[in-house]
Structures are given as C-alpha cells and as structure tokens.
Amino acid sequence: MTSTEPTLSAAGDRRRWFALAIVMTAAFMDLVDVTIVNIAIPSIQQDAGASFSQIQWITAGYALAFAAGLITGGRLGDIHGRKRLFLIGIGGFTVASALCGFAANPEMLVASRILQGGMAALMVPQVLSIVHATFPAHERGKVFGLFGAIVGLGAVSGPLLGALLTEWNLFGLEWRPIFLINLPVGIAGLILGSLFITESKAPKALKLDLVGVALVTLGLLMLIYPLTRGEELGWPLWGYVSMGGSLVVLGALVAYERRKTARDGSPLIELSLFRVKSFAAGIAVQTVFGVALGIFFLVWTMYMQMGLGWTPLRAGLTGVPFSIAVSTAAGLSVQKLVPRFGRKVLQAGALVMGAGVLLYIWESERYGLGIASWQMALPLVVMGVGMGLIVAPLTEAVLSEVPREHAGSASGLINTVQQMGNALGLGLVSVVFFGVIADDLRPDQVGPAFVDGFQHALWWVAAVMGVIFLLMSALPKRPAQQAEGAGAEFPVAAEKEPEFVS
C-alpha cells in the first residue's frame, strides 16, 4: 500500500473519523458563512455606513472569489497535498474572518470578504477529496450521508445564527460576531487537522497548469460577475456581452486542456472525467439543482422578511423543520434506501421536493399575509425530505467512478458547477420574482406583491425540479456493491473504485 492510501489499522480508523469530523466542520463553516451575512446586512449598512454598492460587494465579492478559485484549489490539492491545502485554506479563512470582524471601514470589509472567498476556494474542494482518498468504497455511503446532513444544517443555520448574533449585539459589537465566531472554530480545525488528517495527493507528479488557471478564472468571472450584479445594475448590454464571451473563453479552455493532456498529462481539468457517465450526468444535475436552490432561498428570505414583515429571528426559526428534514433524509437515503433502490431514490427526491414546492404555493395562496410559521412547517418538511434524498447520494454518485488521483479536480468541478448554478438562480430572481413586482408600490401593496412574486418564483422552482427528474435518468441505476457483491478485501487499495454502475 502506498503512502497516499489510507491506513486500515485501528489507530488509522480512529484518525480518519477524527479527520472526517474536522473537514465536515470546515464545510459547515463555509456553508454558514455564505448565508449568515444576508441577515446582518441592515446592521452592517447602519453601523458601518456602507453604500448599496458596497453591500452588494460584501456578498458578491465572496461568491466571485470562491467560484473562480474552486477548480484551481482542487487541482492544487492533487499536486501539493490535500491536507496541506486544507490547512492553508482554513488558516487563511480564519485570518480573513478576523479581518472582516475588525474591519475599520466598508472598503476593508469588502476586501476581506474577497480574501475569505479565495481561502474558501482552497479549503472546500479538499473536503470531498480527503473523504474520497481516505475512505474505502463500502464506507463512503455513510460518510456522504453525514455530508448531506451537514448541507441541510448549513442551509438554514446561517440565517438563524446570523439573526441571533445580530439581535444579541454581543459586547456592543453589532454585526461583527457573525465573522468572529469563525475564529475559535478555525483555530481548532487548524490544530486538529494537522494532527489527524492523513496527507494524500496524486500518485504521479503533476504541474499546475497556469494557462488553464488564467482561462478558467477569466471565463468564470465573465459569466458569474454579470449574473451576480446584473439586477442591481439594470442588466446592461456589457453584461450580456460578457456572458456570451465567457462561452468563447471556456471553449478555448477545453481546446487548450485537450492539447495540454496530450502534451504532458498535467491539465488543470481532467476532461477524461466527462467520459465517465456517472460524473457527467451528476455534474449536469448539480448545476440545475444549484439553480433551484439559488432561486428558492433568496426569494424565501425576502418573502418572509419584506413581504410578511417577520423579524430575522422568526424567519430563521421557521426554517428549522426544513433543516431537520434534510439532515434526517440525507442519512437515511445513502445508508438504507440507495443500496436497495438505487437511482429511483434520487428521482423520488426530485418529485417529493417538487411536491413540497407545490404545497407551499397552495398554502401561500390560501393564507396570504396571515400565514403562520407552523403552517409553513408541512411544505418545508416535504421539501427538506426531497432535498435530503438528493444531496447526499448525488455527491456519492458523481465521485463514485472517479480515480483517486483526480479527486481534487473532480471535487473542484462539483463545487464550481454548483456555484455557477446558484449564481444563475440568483440572476433569475430578478426575472421570476422582481419581474412581477411593480416598482412604484404603496406601503400597503408591498406585502401582497411579495406574496404573488413568491408564488410565481416557486412555479419556476417546481419546473426546474421536473428538469432535474429527467436529467437523473442518465445517472447509474444501481449501487455497484449490490450488483457486484462484497468486492475486494481492501477496496481502498484500488486505483479506481466504482461504487455505482450503469
């Protein structure tokens, strides 16, 4: 067994479960940080005196730096070691969080958020890479079930935590604790990660493809920047030109990566991964699923706070049933249901989540502005169960047939397309939500207009879930372990370990 492979001794077994807890905590910290800022924006605007444009950049700067750096961050882990890049990422993320928390002015806060997003791009791809390289095939179902639970908790914990920290105004610090809370978590992750995570990297020497880095960064920025700021700027012509030009740049990237692969076998993006049916299909589903989530979570937050007039804390607490449902269904799906029913579980998840969306539309229409938090619980639980049935097994399916040496590249691609989908969904909010709300509303018209806009946006989410259901037909049908039996005694030692077969 080579040095890049996980140890199967009892001590090694304990170490890798500690390592899993550490990387999952880092993933949770990133998920929370993406959403926690939105709740605190009014406090930031009032206390720091930030302009509307600066407020936009506090959220958009993080998203842009994160999305643009994910593929490069994943490949750097393959080359220089996933543990090393994870520790650099979590250390940098912690420093950037401190800079955000102690920002003296809005300009410093924006710059610190961009740095934070860049450090997250180094840290986050290593999470799935470390899991893929550390755990054998027969244990990854349990691991990805935990990962799905973390995703569910992170989805609504950010707004709830942001609301609590802002309302408590700890030590008179206003909004600053939403960033400073990362410091003890990050420091603990840095120390424990250095002790318990086992280093892994690609078995053959690779070099960083600098031309590929430049092309992928430019292409993603040209695509995501107009999507992120288009609504605020009134969708200018240059935004459409930029998005169209991004396709040309990304096409040039594909052509260059093909030549790079033939020349020295060290590209930034392993195009061979797209010949793996499970990976290609899963990437398509991840992208479209990101669109649905991008639309729903932003519109849902505005509907509750601006339309219904609820406090941030009430809005955050309303999402708790959703979080519990996602976490429970995620663990159940990969450990119990997928081994027995395979792809049908993911397709059922798309239908169940779509049914929850339709139920939410019906309740919103029936109860209008008088709807209560407890009346939202049923549709949120149904939606949460559907999402839980998707998120954990989908990640497992996408990575199942990826060779271990390309785990970083694959992980970076998974996270990148999800971010692209989210950005596209956020861009569509201006069309599917604000597009049906008039600009010159009287105060008494705001609530009903936001309720109508919410229902209109949810019809789009339901349609996207139908598209996802159709795309899932290209995923592998059955888990490989059920089709092939127990397999080898030490499946970890194999260079390529398919868990799903067509």
Automatic annotation (TrEMBL):
Pfam families: MFS_1 (PF07690). The chain crosses the membrane at residues 17-41, 53-73, 85-104, 110-131, 143-165, 177-196, 208-225, 237-257, 278-303, 315-333, 345-362, 374-399, 420-437, 457-475. Gene3D superfamilies: MFS general substrate transporter like domains, Multidrug resistance protein D. Keywords: Antibiotic resistance, Cell membrane, Membrane, Transmembrane, Transmembrane helix, Transport. Coiled coil: none annotated. It comes from the Bacteria. It is a multi-pass membrane protein. Residues 19-481 form the Major facilitator superfamily (MFS) profile domain. SUPFAM superfamilies: MFS general substrate transporter. Its main location: membrane. PROSITE patterns: MFS. This is MFS transporter. It comes from Streptomyces plumbiresistens. The lineage of its organism: Bacteria, Bacillati, Actinomycetota, Actinomycetes, Kitasatosporales.
